[in-house]
């Protein structure tokens, strides 16, 4: 039963993380707080991959709901082994979603923002391998949108951090579910042999 309580606590923790991922991804569409950049397709192409809305957000609600509903599954099945199997599959879905969010956010961070530089829209930091992150003097290359480098770096770093936490929580539940599936039958056999 403690494994069920642990899974439920992980489910509760995943909901705010998923919500924050969705919000961070949505904010990437509105640099400088303006909708016109998204309308004119002047945002980085990676926001259209929906790494925070999909991978770190909506997909993550699947394991969150499964982890939270494990008690009901035990009530209907009579055992918690089927609930643990379901939680393992849900954890795998969560691992995939958080990994997708992390990878796309990391690539977008390395490539840099899409901005106006010298009269044309481009990725001015695309070929510097992410070294622009540690050289603030280069950030002035992006004239428009205002403060786009800070905007992208902050929100993509938030997505990286949130997806890492989501990955760790799903990994913990995966390990917990597997250990429970392997050890629980052994415990039942020992109890049975002691009683007989």
Automatic annotation (TrEMBL):
The chain crosses the membrane at residues 12-31, 46-70, 82-110, 153-175. GO terms for cellular component: membrane. It is a multi-pass membrane protein. Pfam families: L6_membrane. Its main location: membrane. It is found in: Membrane. Keywords: Membrane, Transmembrane, Transmembrane helix. Belongs to the L6 tetraspanin family. This is Transmembrane 4 L6 family member 1-like. It comes from Cyprinus carpio (Common carp). The lineage of its organism: Eukaryota, Metazoa, Chordata, Craniata, Vertebrata. The gene is LOC109053365.
């Amino acid at each position: 039963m403690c494994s069920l309580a642990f899974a439920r606590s992980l489910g509760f923790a995943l909901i705010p993380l998923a919500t924050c991922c969705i919000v961070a991804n949505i904010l990437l569409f509105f640099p400088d707080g303006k909708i016109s950049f998204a309308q004119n397709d002047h945002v980085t192409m990676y926001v259209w991959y929906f790494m925070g809305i999909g991978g770190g957000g909506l997909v993550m609600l699947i394991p969150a709901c499964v982890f939270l509903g494990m008690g009901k599954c035990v009530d209907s099945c009579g055992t918690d082994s089927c609930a643990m199997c379901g939680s393992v599959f849900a954890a795998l879905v969560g691992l995939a979603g958080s990994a997708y969010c992390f990878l796309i956010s990391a690539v977008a961070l390395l490539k840099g923002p899409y901005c106006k530089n010298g009269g044309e829209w481009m990725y001015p930091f695309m070929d510097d391998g992410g070294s622009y992150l540690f050289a603030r003097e280069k950030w002035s290359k992006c004239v428009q949108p205002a403060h786009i480098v800070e905007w992208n770096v902050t929100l993509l770093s938030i997505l990286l951090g949130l997806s890492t936490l989501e990955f760790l929580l799903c990994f913990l539940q995966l390990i917990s579910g597997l250990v429970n599936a392997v050890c629980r039958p052994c415990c039942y056999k020992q109890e049975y042999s002691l009683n007989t």
